């Protein structure tokens, strides 16, 4: 099944236990939310971890109220918890933009590249796409690439 046909709320398996029929899963939308949480902070201070045994997601950040959930002491033990990536880790930033531009606006590649050398790049980029009536196409392209990258990440994490 390719990424465009995959349902938006597909389930992701994180840990395979061959001796019993128990596989912790999380919904795609929960994983997407965790990645958004970690991507919001450009200094890597907002992190999310998925328990490999239960599928529960734990959030840590200086801005996040830790009293809302108790963070396990061994949260950084990679055999027990998978740290969710952020969009940069998944290559969903400028490179994704430039892939889209090379397909949808090849004549404006240099212009978009220049946009991303200035502050407020995404806002200016989206204004350009809106003017070219490509904003909805971009959102679909970005969502598909995000789904595919998260599915691949989850598959790789599940094979550990």
What does this structure look like?
By secondary structure, the protein is of the alpha+beta class. It has 5 helices and 5 strands; from the N terminus they run ββαβββαααα. The protein has helices spanning 28-40, 94-104, 109-115, 121-131, 135-158; strands at residues 11-13, 25-27, 47-51, 57-60, 81-83. The strands form 2 sheets. It has a 3-stranded antiparallel beta sheet with strand order 4-3-5, with helices on one face. A two-stranded antiparallel sheet has the order 1-2. It is elongated and about 50 Å long. The relative contact order is 0.15. Mean pLDDT is 83; it is low at 1-10 and 15-22.
Question: Can you list the strand order of the major beta sheet?
Answer: 4-3-5
Q: Helix/strand-derived class?
A: alpha+beta
Low-confidence stretches: 1-10, 15-22
Arithmetic mean of pLDDT = 83
What's the gyration radius in Å?
Answer: 18 Å
List keywords for this structure.
alpha+beta; disordered N terminus; 160 residues; two-stranded antiparallel sheet
What is this structure's SSE topology?
Layout: E1 11-13, E2 25-27, H1 28-40, E3 47-51, E4 57-60, E5 81-83, H2 94-104, H3 109-115, H4 121-131, H5 135-158
Antiparallel strand pairs: 1-2, 3-4, 3-5
Concise structural overview:
With 160 residues, the chain is of the alpha+beta class. It is built from 5 helices and 5 strands; from the N terminus they run ββαβββαααα.
């Amino acid at each position: 099944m390719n990424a465009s046909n995959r349902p938006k709320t597909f389930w992701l398996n994180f840990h395979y236990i061959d001796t019993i029929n128990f596989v912790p899963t999380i919904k795609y939308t929960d994983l997407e939310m965790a990645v958004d949480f970690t991507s919001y902070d450009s200094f890597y201070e907002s992190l999310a971890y998925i328990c490999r045994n239960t599928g529960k997601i734990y959030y840590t950040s200086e801005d996040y109220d830790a009293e809302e959930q108790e963070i396990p002491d061994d949260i950084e033990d990679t055999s027990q918890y998978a740290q969710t990536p952020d969009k940069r880790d998944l290559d969903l930033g400028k490179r994704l933009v430039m892939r889209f531009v090379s397909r949808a606006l090849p004549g404006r590649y240099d212009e978009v590249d220049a946009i991303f050398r200035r502050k407020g790049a995404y806002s200016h980029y989206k204004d350009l796409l809106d003017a070219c009536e490509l904003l909805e196409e971009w959102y679909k392209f970005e969502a598909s690439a995000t789904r595919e990258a998260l599915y691949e990440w989850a598959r790789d994490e599940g094979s550990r």
